[in-house]
Amino acid sequence: MYYSSGNYEAFARPQKPEGVDHKSAHLIGTGLAALTAACYLVRDGQMKGDRIHILEKDSTPGGACDGWRFENVGYVMRGGREMDNHFEVMWDLFHSIPSIETEGVSVLDEYYWLNKKDPNYSLCRATVNRGEDAHTDGKFDVSDKAAMEIMRLFFTPDEDLYDKRITDYFDGEVLDSNFWLYWRTMFAFENWHSALEMKRYLKRFIHHIGGLPDFKALRFTRYNQYESMILPMVKYLETHNVQFHYNTKVVNVEFDIRPGRKLASRIELLREGKREFIDLTEDDLVFITNGGCVENSSMGSQNEPAAYSTVLKPGGGWDMWRKIAAQDPAFGNPDKFCSDPEQTNWMSATVETLDQRIIPYIKNICKRDPFSGGVVTGGIVTVKDSAWLLSWTINRQPQFREQPRDQGVRPVQRCSRRLY
After folding, report:
1. Are 318 and 89 in contact (CB under 8 A)?
2. Rounded to whole angstroms, how far apart are CA atoms 178 and 353?
3. Which of 79, 69, 163, 165 lies closest to 346 in space, CA to CA?
4. Is the peptide bond before 411 cis (omega within 30 degrees of 0)?
5. What is the number of other CB atoms lying within 10 angstroms of the CB of residue 336?
C-alpha cells in the first residue's frame, strides 16, 4: 500500500518482488499483527502460501483478539480493539479478505455497511451512585492551565520523555478533568504510566479528540473480534495454503551478529512439548510479535479467580524477548515493560449471561435495549466513583454466533497495562 497526494497509488498492486519464490517466512504468534503480515505476504508479497509458516503456542489463533466458549467456563474475551475510520492498514487489508458470512463481499464491506446503518455513540459515558448518570455531558472540563500542560507534553521531544511518568507533566488540573477520565479509561492509562506513550497516543488519536466524550469516533464489529476479524483472516490464509503450526511455542530466536549486520540464524521451539530447531538462511524472513498484552495471562472461571503471578511464565513471549535482547542491546529492554506486574497488570471479566432482573437497570443507564441487535452502550461506561475506575460495556448482541438470542454477553473491564 502506498500513499501520495490523493489516492493515485493506494489502489495499485505491487509488482512481484524479485526472488520471492525462493524465500520463506516464519511468523511467531497468530495475533492481529502476525496474521496481517501473513496476509500481506500473500497478497502484495505474492509469496507462495506453503512457504509461509505461522507458529502459535496455543491450540487456537487470535492472541488478544480472542473470543470463544470454553467448556465448563463459558464465553471468554480477553481483549479487543477500539477501531476508528483511520486504521488505514486494517481497512486496506480487509477490503481483500472475503467475508465468511456473506458470499461475494469483503470483511470491510460488511463492517462498513453495519456501522453506516447503526453508527456508534454513547448515551451515558460515566455513572455515579450505583448507576446514576455522572453528567459529564460531553464536556472536557479542561482549564487553560490544563490545556497548556497537555500541549507541553505534545511538543516535548521523545528523548526528553524517557523514564518520565505522566504525573511529571500533568497535575490535578488535568488529572481531575473529564478529559482525563475519558482518556485513561478508554486507553487504559494509569497516572504513573509512560509520558512518552501518552504523547504518542495523543498524536495518534488527535483527530478523534472531539469524539472522545461519546465514542462517536469508534467503530465495532458485528460479533466478537475473533469471529469477525481473526477467523476471516485465518480462512483466507488457509485457502492460500499457508501453514499453521499450533501448540508450537517459540522460546528463542538466535542471531548471527556481525558489524553492520544482524541475521536470524535459528529458531528454537517446543512443538507439542518437544524441543526442535529451525535453521534459517538469508532467504528466510522472520516476523516476531513480542510483548503481547495477554502474554503471561491466566484464566479463572465462574467459581475461581484467575491466578495472579509476579513471575513470568518460562518460555513465553516476554521470556523469548529477554533471550533475544540478551544477544544485542539494539533488541531493546523488555524488563522496562514486564519487570513490575503491579504497575502493568490488567483485569478483564466476561459475564456470560445477563440476568433478566438487571436488564431494566442496563436499559436505564445506556437508554437502549440490549437485545435490539444494534449499538447498546456504544463503548465503555465508567463507574466514576469506583476505586478501580471499573468500566463495563455491552456490545451488539449476540456477541457470539452460537449465543442464545435471549442471553447477553457483557465484558467488564478494569485495565492498566503500561509501564514507565
Report:
1. no
2. 32
3. 79
4. no
5. 13
pTM > 0.70: yes
C-alpha cell at 129: 451512585
CB neighbour burial string for 16-46, b if at least 16 within 10 angstroms, e if fewer = eeeebeebbbbbbbbbbbbbbbbbbbbbbbe
Which of 114, 116, 136 has its CA nearest to residue 125? 136
Q: Which residues are catalytic?
A: 82, 201
d(CA 288, CA 324): 10
pLDDT tens for the 420 residues of the chain, in order: 566 667 777 778 899 999 999 999 999 999 999 999 999 999 999 999 999 999 999 888 998 887 777 776 677 777 777 888 888 889 999 999 999 999 999 999 999 999 999 999 999 999 999 999 999 999 999 999 999 999 999 999 999 999 999 999 999 999 999 999 999 998 889 999 999 999 999 999 988 888 889 999 999 999 999 999 999 999 999 999 999 999 999 999 999 999 999 999 999 999 988 999 999 999 999 999 887 777 777 777 778 888 887 777 777 788 899 999 999 999 999 888 888 877 777 777 766 666 778 889 989 999 999 888 999 999 999 999 998 888 998 889 888 888 776 666 656 554 444 333
User: What are the angstrom distances between the C-alpha of 226 and each of 31, 39, 80, 301, 386?
Assistant: 10, 16, 9, 20, 30
Nearest-CA neighbor of 127 among 407, 391, 398, 406? 391
CA 34, CA 51: separation in Å to the nearest integer? Answer: 15
Virtual CA dihedral for 331, 63, 234, 97, nearest 10 degrees? -80
For 172, 219, 344, 351, the CA distances from 414, given in Å and listed in that order, are 22, 21, 12, 14
Inter-axis angle of helices 195-205 and 144-155, to 10 degrees?
Answer: 100
